[in-house]
Specification:
Belongs to the methyltransferase superfamily. One of its GO terms (biological process) is methylation. This is Methyltransferase type 11 domain-containing protein. It holds the Pfam family Methyltransf_11. By secondary structure, the chain is an alpha/beta fold. It has one domain: 3-Layer(aba) Sandwich (Rossmann fold). 33% of the residues lie in helices and 23% in strands. It contains ten helices and eight strands. Strands 1, 2, 3, 4, 5, 6, 7 and 8 form an eight-stranded mixed sheet that branches. Helix 1 crosses helix 8 and helix 6 runs antiparallel to helix 10. The radius of gyration is 18 Å and the shape is globular.
């Protein structure tokens, strides 16, 4: 089993404040395939960004994460229970959940072990949904600057697991019947540069860069270059294309 590394303890409050919120349409797409709404498990729940939506639909929502700080900063609802646990080995009963979700987190898991555990936990006809997002889009000029920052400035500081996310979880172990032709969904926000600055500081690569270069803030340098183009106080539409991989456990 992969070593447990908590990468988000130092950024848990920033993560909650600056990470974009998933659109309702994403969950509506997932709900088309569920048979029951008794219990759902959100793996790598972080601060409960997905769990808060699931709580509107399911009687019982359990969010698990290895980061105690993330859980301490998580969204609170009367039907959400948070547990500090890794996703690959849990103490839940066999075939307990109607839905398992993994939002922007699966690349940190031991994916072979997690696939087996998810298969154990899901009811027959239960649904598993992996989803996440990669680089956002604003316009051609800004997008080019962000890509350069992503690949050239902080590129060497990304964990190797990032490649799994960039590939949209296409090649992960998946012992479920995959739903084809899932509708694409965009996550759209209106941000100024302050919000963009905060969001970029939630990237693990930026945090790793800062640990190695504590006197240099690469995001601040990027903001100086972006300001004349973006506008110092202007809010712009930022689009995150969301990918979604859905599977059903069959008998």
């Amino acid at each position: 089993m992969k070593q447990v590394i908590d990468r988000f303890t130092t950024t848990s409050s920033t993560y909650k404040k600056f990470r974009p919120k998933y659109p309702e349409a994403l969950f509506d797409t997932i709900y088309k395939y569920i048979k029951d709404t008794s219990a759902t498990l959100d793996c790598g729940t972080g601060n409960g960004q997905a769990a808060r939506y699931l709580a509107k639909k399911f009687d019982h929502v359990i969010g698990i994460d290895i980061s105690k700080n993330q859980i301490n900063n998580a969204v609170s609802e009367k039907n959400i229970w948070y547990i500090e646990s890794r996703a690959e080995k849990t103490k839940f009963k066999d075939e307990y959940f109607d839905l398992i979700t993994i939002a922007q987190a699966a690349h940190w898991f031991d994916l072979e072990l997690f696939n087996n555990e998810a298969h154990r936990l899901l009811k027959t006809d239960g649904v598993i949904a992996y989803f996440g997002y990669n680089l956002f889009k604003v316009n051609n000029e800004i997008d080019e600057m962000i890509r350069y920052f992503y690949y050239e400035v902080i590129g060497p500081y990304w964990d190797k697991e990032r490649k799994i996310l960039e590939n949209e979880y296409k090649d992960i172990p998946f012992s479920f019947t995959e739903v084809k032709e899932v509708s694409d969904v965009d996550m759209i926000v209106k941000w100024d540069l302050e919000q963009l600055y905060g969001y970029l500081h939630t990237w693990t690569s930026v945090q790793t860069f800062l640990k190695s270069n504590p006197t240099v803030d690469p995001v601040a340098d990027l903001m100086k270059k972006l300001t004349p183009i973006w506008g110092e106080k202007e809010k712009r539409e930022v689009v995150f294309p969301v990918f979604l991989k859905i599977g059903i456990k069959e008998e």
